[in-house]
Amino acid sequence: MPRVELTSHLYQFFPALAGRALAVEGRTVAEVVRAVDALAPGFGFYVCDEAGRLRQHVLIYVGEERVRDRATLGDPVRPDDRVLIVQALSGG
Amino acid sequence: MNLRILVGTRKGTFLVTRQNGRWRPHLAGHGGQGVNYAAADPETGTLWALLGHGHWGAKLSRSTDGGATWADAPQIRYPEGARHYLPPPPSETGAGEGAPTLKPATLLKLWTMAFGPGGRVWVGTIPGGLFESRDGGETFELNRGLWDHESRGGDLFAGPGNGTTKWFGTPAAEGEFAPGIHSIVVDPRTPDRLWVAISTAGVFETTDGGRTWRTRNQGLTMDYSPNPGDEWAGHDPHAVVQCAGQPDVLWQQNHCGVFVSEDGAATWRKVSRPEQGVHFGFPVAVDPEDGRTAWLVPGKSDMQRTTLDGALFVARTRDGGASWEALRAGLPQEHAYDVVYRHALDHRAGVLAFGSTTGNLYVSEDRGETWQAAAHNLPPVYSVRFA
């Protein structure tokens, strides 16, 4: 199963996910996000908007590649992939 | 005195309580997060906070233990198929503004919240959606009467409607130029009658529980518009409040003055006194029994959003705006440039409180005559509400 790693910021909102090796079923990035949402209800709406689009300042990597399909997260994910979800930090 | 004050700030939710004669704040939750508005449901005692996470979107948070712990509530989402015409952004070149753009609606900002009997809760959002709950906030539905209003193009779930919008936007829209609902007034006589105020479209009223809405901008003047009195002149009420004991009395302050209505917003009357510095500002509070008594925290002008001459004062009228007093005791009278946002002044039982973008929080226990500082170094204050 793909492994999922999150920016530490997200663990702040979903402490139930912290400190555990996260591996979920999913053949696309969208399926991976949905699978994490099933473990931590509400997670998907932090990463994506109502329409399922990746939020503007959020990035998802599959391996070392940034996802290309920000609108539907249709990028494929292989069982041995590492999916990394991060965000830009700015402001003061 | 069992009053508490909920303060929403750019960096968290604070609770302010009175201890040994002094009002003292403590961080109650959401440390580091933007809190646009925080308020208590008077029926259930639940505390609510409207968060603006920025990267992670707008979120509803609530506490059922008086603010000790907070958790995400069921979230507000624009339904699939909700679309709106975005007004063209103000032209930088003067070359014309182009046509409105039809686009799917996504939640940009949770801006205000109001409560009614029987589990009714309303939330005002950007891009201009009013959401209603009838189960205490467990589920919310977009109010279609207002969303599908002819002035926004009609029913855009079904098609392109009439192709245009008369609503403008607000720079408060998190990067977009979309309209926002920042005031929701629930008539104490019946929750089927509501007023909402929109930046930038003015005041709307429903008397049938939100099925139909009509504008309530008569008497307002938008002095920057070619036709200042037109109902679609781009009226920008900064906050609308109601006298609970005289519910036909409503107040607002906007770019072009202070206005009062004594007929349920059917008509508005300008009661500014620019020569006394009472003209531009954001918040207004009204006495719950005497609609002629109201308080403002004036700013210099919309082009210069600071205090007048570096001195902070609260303006009070006790005769419906015919005359104003400047209340200064306990407030800094030099080197003060505080700006008080639209939700950051409140009144309860003779006690007033306001917070500024400079992080100052002031409380008066004598209807504004004298003030004490409860804090000087809070994050920029977005909302102040008694709980």
Describe this entry's structure for a reader.
The complex is a heterodimer of chains A (92) and B (387). By secondary structure, chain A is α+β, with helices and mostly antiparallel strands. Chain A has one domain: Beta-grasp domain (Ubiquitin-like (UB roll), Roll), CATH 3.10.20. Helices cover 24% and strands 21% of the residues of chain A. Chain A contains three helices and five strands. Chain A has a five-stranded mixed β-sheet. The longest helix of chain A is centred in the middle third of the chain and has 11 residues, at 29-39. Chain A is globular. Chain A starts with a strand and ends in a 5-residue tail after the last strand. The model of chain A has no long low-confidence stretch (mean pLDDT 94). With 387 residues, chain B is mainly beta. Helix content of chain B is 1%, strand content 37%. Chain B has one helix and 30 strands. Chain B has a four-stranded antiparallel β-sheet, with no helix packed on it. Chain B has a four-stranded antiparallel β-sheet with strand order 4-5-6-7, with no helix packed on it. The model of chain B has no long low-confidence stretch (mean pLDDT 94). Chain A binds chain B through residues 10, 13, 42, 45-47, 49-51, 53, 55-58, 87-88, 91, and chain B through 53-57, 59, 72, 75, 77-80, 104, 106-107, 175.
